[in-house]
Amino acid sequence: MEQKVAIITGASQGIGAALVAAYRERGYGVVATARSVKSGHDPDVLAIAGDIADRRTAGRAVAEGMARFGRIDTLVNNAGIFIAKPFTEYSEADYRAAIAVNVSGFFHITQLVMAEMEKRGAGHVVQITTTLAEQANSQVPAMLASLTKGGLNAATRALAIEYALRGIRVNAVSPGIIRTPMHPPETHAALDRLHPVGHMGEIADVVQAVLYLESAPFVTGEILHVDGGQIAGH
Fold this sequence. Notes:
The structure is a single chain. By secondary structure, the protein is an alpha/beta fold. It is built from 6 helices and 9 strands; from the N terminus they run E-H-E-E-H-E-H-E-H-E-E-H-E-H-E. It has one domain (5-225): Rossmann fold. Helices cover 40% and strands 18% of the residues. It has a 7-stranded parallel beta sheet with strand order 3-2-1-4-5-6-9, sandwiched between helices.
């Protein structure tokens, strides 16, 4: 069988790096893109360094991925930024950054990848969004996350229907707060309490959700919540 291939954005650390490792364990070739991603010793991981908000980065990831591997089976739109502030304290720079990475970054690479997938009549696209887009929390004011990641949820459903008869599935994973180095240890107790189950999620929880969707051919248009019960209420 031909080797399958995944493109993963925001692949240099955290959830993205874990996704690269998980897809390699499944035997996939991986195109890993992020601003600071570096080439390693694995010939089946192609590193594309660049800003995902720049269409040229997306173009390189797709063109060089096709040249190296000859196909693209999966795209995981993991790259994103999260800025939590009261609404009136957001700066124009905050707004531009969130739109650039979370929306433009999604648009450019997804459009280019789906054009290649359509030629083969098969493919799978997954967005990483956030439960805050659907279940707002006054303790975590994050309107820009709702604006941008909520838009990705809507785009996920729209694309799933548009491409349902063309062999391309489109889904999203919607996490709660995930334990990563971006959350200092002194914040963990408060962040744990934001989840009905009493604790944050782990990177592995998000990875497992993406892999479930990868292996679920009858699932498309799904927003899979991995949030310790947040979507059900606080």
